[in-house]
Design a protein that fits this description.
mainly alpha; 3 domains; five-stranded mixed beta sheet
């Protein structure tokens, strides 16, 4: 809460990119313009993200229609998901049979985890999705064990399942997993009730989004409006092995990173994160023997398969909804290992006792170092990020003011912070995200070449102005590579310089001669 209080102005707003799209879509709802991407050229219907989070964030626009002042209301609305996450996680851990000290240890881990903090102070769907999913599965368990009102509880669970889906389309796995477990347990009536309540919401969104989708098969249109379309465009079956290998690698590292972030730099650190991830998964398998965890385990398996099949390398953001099981699994595995170490410390063989002591010491050092990293991220990295983003906004503000005054109202702008540019200038904007294939092919040179063609790519996408800021590339490039790329973009024959600012430059995109 203290970090939220210190950062009520949402300095990280726009940094993850998706948050800006959610918020501009929320503005469209609050303005009564329909569910549209207000920031995108032409303001098409928002057919990529379901309306759950934008509808919730629209409350901030209704409470205070003035931007950026209403980011304060949005910050506290987003914070409300955090105590709900803590309470529901504790409830699940109790039902899973964890001891009281284990539950409160995990609660402390959750409350201090840097990734949880990051998603608490950014307007992203991770926390709302996770909280509603936890509530849905809790109600499913209550319905199973209820002697009365089981059908009513399951109907409510199905309705909440629909809300989970509206927070993020990955929630569709509940429509598969929950009825499957119910049928397996010969509770066919409850399976049918859950499906009957959730399925219409899923179908309604599918029909509406398909009916209102912006026509076009170019990369930019698909990226902004069509999850399945962009996946089919970048994924090719003859490259399936590349996608699968990279996704497995990223998935294991993300599971481990959710426990101990950035343990060591380089490949060795990544492998260590993956080992920790494997330990957490092994512990989760031990826990699954408890009947109460079955639904969560099935959800986690199906969600993991979706992550592995998707055309985007996983990060901690992808696995956060499974965090209750990941942390509980890791603690379970640590307790299992500790039990074995205690037995070996009493062994008559001196070699066995020395080995056990060494393993115990290494484990304690690892946990201590992981705790240190969490504290460092919380008290150094996160405040530094907030300060850097405040500085970025201050430096970009002059350019935003100039564009608001000098660019035509129908200007379509290329900007790394597209939704932010729209909200400050009133001009529609988009970001040209390089196709993910460059990542799967380990082709940073190709990715840089794509970004260097900003002018030509903007023209092809129907954008007629470019605002290039040194802040646009986030952490994609080091300073030397970023400087080199910016010079290449500046020297492009496709761009005409209009105005220079300390942080960046505004260009007009030259149109091709007929």
């Amino acid at each position: 809460m203290f970090f939220v209080w210190q950062n009520q102005d949402q300095p990280l707003f726009g940094y993850p990119h998706d948050d800006g799209i959610y918020y501009s879509s929320a503005k469209s709802l609050a303005d009564g313009a329909g569910y549209k991407i207000a920031s995108y050229p032409g303001q098409p219907y928002q057919t990529k993200y379901p309306p759950g989070l934008p509808a919730y964030l629209a409350l901030a626009w209704l409470m205070n229609p003035e931007f950026p002042g209403n980011l304060t209301q949005a910050a506290w609305l987003q914070f409300l998901w955090m105590p709900a996450l803590l309470a529901l996680s504790l409830w699940h851990w109790r039902d899973w049979g964890l001891a009281e000290w284990q539950r409160w240890t995990l609660a402390a881990v959750l409350a201090t985890n840097t990734y949880v903090l990051y998603f608490t102070v950014t307007l992203l769907s991770e926390l709302p999705f996770t909280v509603t999913m936890l509530l849905c599965l809790l109600l499913v368990r209550k319905a199973e064990s209820a002697s009365q009102r089981a059908v009513l509880l399951m109907a409510f669970a199905g309705l909440i399942g629909g809300i989970v889906f509206l927070m993020r389309t990955a929630g569709v796995v509940l429509l598969i997993g929950v009825p499957a477990v119910m049928v397996w347990r010969k509770r066919n009536q409850l399976a049918g009730v859950f499906a009957l309540m959730m399925a219409p919401i899923v179908v309604a969104w599918a029909v509406w989004s398909f009916s209102n989708r912006l026509p076009g098969n170019d990369h930019l249109t698909l990226y902004y409006t069509n999850y399945v379309g962009i996946h089919l465009k970048v994924f090719h079956f003859n490259e399936a092995h590349l996608f699968l290998w990279k996704n497995i690698d990223g998935f294991l590292a993300s599971v481990g990173g959710l426990i101990f972030p950035s343990i060591l730099p380089g490949q060795f650190g990544r492998i260590l994160s993956q080992v920790i991830g494997v330990a957490a998964i092994a512990g989760a398998v031990r826990l699954v023997r408890t009947r109460a965890i079955t639904h969560f385990a099935v959800f986690s398996v199906l969600a993991s398969l979706l992550i592995l099949a998707w055309s985007y390398p996983p990060t901690e953001r992808f696995v956060l909804p499974m965090s209750a099981l990941i942390w509980a699994g890791f603690l379970t595995e640590v307790c299992h290992l500790a039990k074995g170490i205690r037995a070996k410390l009493r062994d008559k063989d001196m070699g066995q006792r020395i080995a056990a002591f060494g393993i115990a010491a290494a484990g304690i050092c690892l946990i201590a170092y992981g705790s240190y990293l969490q504290a460092k991220l919380r008290f150094e990295t996160m405040p530094a990020m907030a300060a850097n983003e405040r500085l970025r906004l201050a430096q970009d503000s002059e350019a935003y003011g100039w564009m608001r005054t000098n660019l035509p109202k129908d200007a379509a702008l290329l900007s790394g912070y597209d939704a932010l540019a729209y909200l400050y200038t009133g001009r529609s904007a988009a970001t040209l995200m390089p196709p993910v294939n460059f990542v799967y092919h380990d082709d940073p040179a190709g990715r840089e070449e794509y970004m260097a063609r900003a002018g030509a790519n903007s023209r092809d996408a129907g954008l007629n102005y470019v605002y290039m800021s040194r802040h646009d590339f986030r952490s994609d490039l080091d300073e030397e590579a970023k400087e080199k790329l910016m010079k290449r973009i500046e020297s492009s024959e496709d761009l005409e310089l209009l105005q220079s600012f300390p942080a960046g430059k505004v260009f007009r995109v030259k149109q091709r001669a007929n």
